[in-house]
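User: I've been going back and forth on whether these two constructs are worth ordering. Before I decide, could you fold them both?

Assistant: Sure. I'll take them in the order you sent them. The first construct and its structure tokens:
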Amino acid sequence: MAIKPGKLMVKRTFIIMLVVIVALSGVSSVSLFNIMVLKGEEYQTKASEQQLYDSLVTAPRGDIYDRNMQVLATSSTAWTVYITPNAIKKIKKADQRDAVRDTIAKGLSEILGVEYDTVYKNTDKNSYYVIVKKKIEKSVADKVRKFIADNKLTKYIGLDETTKRYYPNDSLASVVLGFVGSDEQGLSGIESFYDNELTGIAGRVVAAKNALGTDMPFTYEKVEEAVKGNSLVLTLDSYIQYTAEKYLETAIAQNKVAERGAAVVMNVNTGAILAMAVKGDFNPNEPFVLSAVDQARVDAETDEAKKSTLRSELLNRQWRNKVISDSYEPGSVFKVITASIAIEENLINKNNTFYCNGHTSVAGQRYGCWKHGGHGTQMLQQAIANSCNPAFITIGQLVGVSTFSKYFKAFGFAEKTGIDLPGESRSTYHKQENMGVVELASSSFGQTFNVTPIQMMAAVSAAVNGGYLVQPHLVSKAINQENKVVSTTTTTYKRQVISKTTSQTMRELMGFVAQNGAKNSLVPGYKIGAKTGTSQKVAKIQATGDTYLYISSCMTIAPIDNPEIAVLVMLDEPKGSNYYGGVISAPVNAKIMADVLPYLGYEPSYSEEEIKKLAIDVPDAVGLTLNEAKAKVTGAKLEYKIVGSGDKVVRQLPEVGKKVATGGVVILYTEDADTAKVTVPNFTGYTATEVNTMAARLGLNIEFSGNIAISGLRAYSQSIASGTEVEVGTIVTVYFRDESAVD
């Protein structure tokens, strides 16, 4: 039977459609197989990238403590403000979109102190995450949150929690601690050297997000907690650090020091650094802010390129740790080392004598002594107390180039100390093959070579601690976030340089120097050893032509019978009337020692002369009858003066707890008393006895600074300027020192 044309057409169409459907199904199957199997992992990753937001959670940086667990550096919670421009772009109406951009730019610029134009441009970027400002405090973050809520901007503005480094003591120990950058990475000091130790392990938050970048409901969030970095406990003591910085800063101001100053306090037996001060320094909370003086220099520069260069130079200068990064000619402090070498090698002893007529010559090179006319014949202890260059040139020649070079290396001057701080410099010196008798002559008294202050501290410590060169260090231990100790630092003995017998002799010599040469280093009640130094900056003098360029320094050791504490003070380019280390640096050593030794538990033992000069605590007489007050004041070995005609004390001057010299006057004011005034005189240049007499006549009290039990000391400064009108009974601190020119 013949098939009708119409039915045939339908059948063909059906067959064709079936073939097409099968073919399409095959293609789809192949495509689906390709997507799900062959490229399944690739497409799954892309989908996850679009739907999942993986954000890091900043790990808190480990804290830094002093040896008494006082916080020196810590990390507090802060917030990063960001905007989501791609979410803003999804606002369909242009006028509404522009209004949102304007609102965001106005609000955030006012709250965060950023430029309106910058924020406004950022709202049009092709991104879901643009940072507006990092590390804002909670008070500012709260303002941002309120702004978001008030303007219903939750989709467009967010805050991420992060951390911010904080230094609670501002500039205290800043060159030691260093600072961190915007990414919390250590950039200098302890923060840099121990960056890996302090840096924690970041956490993660993986969360599902929708096309607008906001959280999707009923989806998962995976959180990996951040792990805080290890904390460090330093050998530094905040009180000792503060003491060193305080007195150093005063000395810099008084002596118009041009190139900053440094002070180090170290345990000679362990190498533990108790204080490391450099002034001027900076505030690590604002490390890129210059001092007012330096900023004025930058502002005065009109050339923009030069201004930028100058600013960078001054910033690097204030960050630079002078104790470890700047080398200097140590001058006569080095005579401790020269003497140690010669004594150890049995070339000299305490009975040797040396003659000085004011100069000496070596291979045609003339060397002068600081004392014109010379010191004449002197024993070894006198030669070192007199800081006599000709005597030590003679000692150096006895030692010879080979032996000098051997011990120079043994004392650590040819290598870095290895202190746990970045940027330690090497010394520059005459190598043995290049050293002749002339170079040996200048080297024997500490000139024509450069070492760092920390090298000098370690070497002198070795000379007095029994002969052991120890490695200076600043970190005593590291602890984790559970406060468990994960590492400790032990004393590193590099080598024994000299014998205990030689070391004992050096202690005796340094004790003699303090009593007979560096008198300004003495501290009432304590046995101090000392050596001062004054060196010319030869290279800079030759480069600039300025001949008045000196480094004044002093090294002190205490207690000298059984040393533990060493103090080194260095003033770089003082511009005052006197530049000798024994005159301007030694008093700083004495002030530091006077505060540090009793703080560390060393009991003073006063001589009869020192007892007479001791300061007395002023008793409390307020509220007592006149008779009771008189008895209490006189019982404290003080005088009194009554102002007013009442019969009860309502006020006194000095106040209770203040210290005045024996025989000082306490002014007792009664109910109807009028305040009595007196003009402060100029005490400069007078002896302690003369100052006391002048003050007593006026009814003023004196607090003496300096060991006034030593004869020959005269006042060189006072806490209240002459001509100032003050109340009767006011305490004036008067500073005394031996003005004799000691190198």
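The second construct, handled the same way:
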Amino acid sequence: MAVARPFALVRTIDQWARCSHRDTAVLASGEVSLAWVDPEREDVAGPLPDRGSGLAFDSSCVLYHGARPEGRIERLLWAAVDAFGLPTAQPQPVALLHRSAEGPVGDFSTAEPSAAFVDPLSLAVDDDDRLFVADGATGRILVFDLWSRRLLRRVVVPGAGGQALVPLDLACRGRTVWAVARGLDGALRMEARRGSVLVDLPTGPADLPPEASVRRVAVSPAGELFVLYRDAGGAAWVVGAGTHQVVRVGGATDVEFDGDGALVVAREPGADFLRVRAGFADMPLKARGYDGRGIVRTPDGRIGFWTADGFRHAVPARIRYRPTGRVTTYRVDSGEHQMEWGRLFVEACIPHHTGVRAHFATADDDLDEPALPRTLPANLVDYVVRRPDLSPPMAPVVQVPGPGQVVRPLHRRETGRELPWSRPAATDRFETFEAPIDAAPGRYLWVTLELTGNERFSPKVRSVRAGYPTHDLLQRLPRTFSREPAVASFLTRFLAMFEGTLADLDGRAGERQILVDPRATPEELLPWLASFVGLVLDERWPDAARRTLVSEAAELFRFRGTPRALGRMLEIYLGFAIVIAEQFRFRGLGGLAGGDDTGPVLSTSVLGGGFRVGGTVGDAGVPTAGGDLDDGFRTNAHRFSVVIPAVLSEEQADVVRDVLDRHRPAHTMVDVCSVGTGFRVGGTGYLGISSIIGPTSGFTPLRLGGSLLGAGSTVGRAGPGAPLGTSRVGRGIRIG
């Protein structure tokens, strides 16, 4: 039986960061590509804005924009349109508040003039649709409830000597809002109905000048606070609280996190947005027409900003790659002297007109010669290598290939990965390439990869695997073929072509037990494996569900047709538990799925009274629910209901019905009850059996012209409870 050969692996971000790079970049996904040239900045007249204007979204995809010159907040329905669409196609904004001496203020049920504001610097909306407004004119933070249309509270940012400070920016995550102000030694953390607490700001770097002040704040998906410091000259620092991340960006105006969790730093108007993930700069974002006053994350995870023509989205910038680049790995160790290395396997995506070539260097002992400097990737922002003293040494300078010396091409494997029965995902664009390691025997190995592109496209390398030792086919030939070193070297390289095919066949034969493992067998062999137990797989099932069904099929078929087997099959397909209620268990309770409601329901099944366990169904003198004894058998026997606590799509409903038709007893009748079928209290619903109280996916958004109020749509949401001692009847509380 063939034994898998060991190999040295370079794959993760930490490993690539310990290598030596020249005109290459490390992406947050753990891939190496050519570095890109920063796009030229568009010339935009005007100074850098000193203050922002708020942007925020609520749960209904309504955008709120603080128009500072007009001293109002505009609202408009957001649409996921192209950022370069015509401005005339965008909806016109509507003012949220209008200052008025009498009557209500805009949409809000309050006539207090103090509810209006003049200078909305920043906006934030929490998960309960409470709008927080940082008013630069009054120095207060106003909290509005967008559903009940009320002004909830006013928050004053306290400063030294009891003076109120002007809030500069707000950031929200969940129900918690953070506020920063100039001169405030910390950040103010608050909720819509609770008091505020002063928390510490992230500590800036050692080179942070004293005149640098807090300008903006953002919160990561993990709840970590990020603060933007900026000095009078335009230099800026983005500092993270938990990760101690420091990003130095000139001319930064705002910070935000997109839907992928990347930190987006908006720079001055005309410059592309910087996007940082895992400590490395990712592809920049083009923001044409950005006014420099702030950015916001849209409901679909993109970054939006305000322009003179309205709201727009940032799009990936068109970048230009460098023509060539190199990455040299650190020293990998085989553990044995005079090791003859085998083949190199590279997981890469190589588009047309691009390429990857390799070069190898070996050694048996530590050399006293100068080593290649460990240069960082071109897009590194603030990634810090942990324990750099543990990084293996780099190659000696004398063994580093010069210009034109990286000549070994890579061959794309037609059979995929060299690992037995290993298949990449169907959507994976990376393929496996290989090349023989043509280097002198040695314990240590350095691999240099040279990437070439056409400035528009770049190859990407995910991992490098160097296998050892080489094949032993030469030892199976007569010694006369390998007496001379030159002849032996040629035959070793020549036989490597055939050894690759033989090694793949031996590896698959040695790991053939994978084929009968439902969790590891290739997807195309699942139907063949299912045929061992007489099971025909439904292609509508997800891959994970089909694998689980095949692994449990033998056990499920032992109880085929029972509630246990039917429930488990549906649970495997749907991914959550369902309830199977047999109708005969509800005799005397009026039935589960309906029945005849015209007659009286006679029952003595009262706990403590006439309720009992055991006995026959048709005892004389005991009335049944809905009629006589024959009606009880006709309405209850051989019937059951399947209760599914979710809204099923058309395909899911068909699959569920198909499973029930194939595996339930032929003489039974079944009803499928999902969330969409509704629930009747006291009639056919039993809490904990056929009904579940809690959040579901049964509510859909209301569409004008396509929804019917009272039937399938609901306007509004449940309001919060009234705290005792803080509410008065007639003002914020109504009875009846």
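Notes on the second construct follow. The chain is about 10% helix and 30% strand. The mean pLDDT is 80.
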